[in-house]
Amino acid sequence: MAEPFSWVPAGINTDVPSAARVYDFLLGGGHNFASDRMVGEKVLQILRDGRAIAASNRSFMRRAVLLMMEQGIDQFLDLGSGIPTVGNVHEIVQQQNPDAHVVYVDYDEVAVSHSQLLLEGDENAGVVQADMCRPQDVLAHPVVQDLIDFSRPVGLLMVAVLHFVSDEKGPAEVVARYLDAMPSGSLIALSHLTADFKPQEMGEVVEAMKHSRDPMYFRSLADFEPMFEGMEVLRPGVVPAPKWHPELGPAGEGGPEDVYVGVGRKP
Ligand SMILES: C[S@@+](CC[C@H](N)C(=O)[O-])C[C@H]1O[C@@H](n2cnc3c(N)ncnc32)[C@H](O)[C@@H]1O
Predict the structure, then answer these.
(1) Ligand 1 pocket, 159 CB below 6 A?
(2) What separation in Å is there between the alpha carbon of 81 and the centre of ligand 1?
(3) Largest CA distance in the chain
(4) Which class in CATH covers the domain with range 19-265?
(5) CA-based radius of gyration for the chain
(6) pLDDT band for position 10 (50/70/90)?
(7) How many helices (H) and strands (E) in the chain?
């Protein structure tokens, strides 16, 4: 029988909270440490609807994947994939098409080791531990090269990860480098937290995350939209998550609108 904490990778500093584990806490998962839960509780004190915001982002991801599949995509590159929880991309995808390929990329040790455990024996899915802000390293990684055929359209996901990329690193630049590598017809899903609706509270969330491994950079709609540069944005455009294709599944309609989302096509 596995030991209770066998999922904790060796050498990890459990005192420093990480985005992957705080998000896991907000989604009700069990792969987080006391330091993560402290930050998570703080976030929930500031944002009473913090869990609903996390859930609305997660359900956008599901709808985006379903739409991509409807459009014929059968290979997915999920950057900043997080700790596997309910409704992971490979589960959504393989339920409909067992031959579809999925590669997860994250730099968090717990996210990667737990993904490895979950994917054991699945030849159509893999995980890479890497900084997604280094597109060349990610794209050249053997697991990516093995599972993704760049001569056919790819479903690229950067869901709730760009708000961990500082202006110096240039999130729009990072997206553009991946877009360059995608074949025509690829679909790209982006989501991003914003302080547009709750400036005071979101400022406090940024403060709470400051000393985690993943400081946050919330952005306005005007700052997020340019990240779709070079893509044809599919209808209904770049909108709060609950307004994006609610007909595809639960969207938390009427719920918090603090995550902007959109899906673009590479022409
Ligand atoms: C809020 S979670 C989102 C998980 C999943 N994409 C979702 O939306 O449900 C953000 C994830 O991005 C990862 N992350 C942040 N910056 C990253 C980077 N530069 N490279 C790789 N992963 C990163 C974190 O470790 C975390 O697991």
Answers:
(1) yes
(2) 5
(3) 52
(4) alpha beta
(5) 17
(6) confident
(7) 10, 8
Choose the residue to mutate in 107, 178, 205 for probing ligand 1, maximizing ligand atoms within 8 Å of C-beta.
Answer: 107
205 CB-contact burial (10 Å; exposed 0-12 / middle 13-18 / buried 19+): buried
Q: Relative to the CA of 27, which ligand 1 atom is closest?
A: 9
List the Cα angle 208/197/52 in 5-degree steps: 65
Specify the long-range contacts of residues 29-38, CB closer than 8 Å, at least 24 apart.
29/83, 29/85, 31/7, 31/83, 31/110, 31/114
Q: How far is the CA of 239 from the centre of ligand 1 (A)?
A: 21
| Nearest CA-CA partner of 175 in 120, 85, 238, 96 | 238
pLDDT digits (tens, 9 = 90+) for 244-258: 999 999 998 889 999
Cα–Cα distance, 229 to 92 (Å, whole number): 28
88 lines ligand 1 (CB under 6 A): no
For residue 1, how far is its CA from the centre of ligand 1 (angstroms)?
30
Q: Where are the domains of the chain?
A: 19-265
Question: From the alpha carbon of 169, which atom of ligand 1 is closest?
Answer: 19
C-alpha of residue 134 to centroid of ligand 1, in Å: 14
Distances (CA, A) of 197 to 55, 65, 99: 18, 27, 41
6 pLDDT tier (thresholds 50, 70, 90): low
Beta carbon of 23 within 6 Å of any ligand 1 atom: yes
Residues 84-93: pLDDT tens digits? 888 899 999 9
Residue in the block written with tokens 């455009």: 237
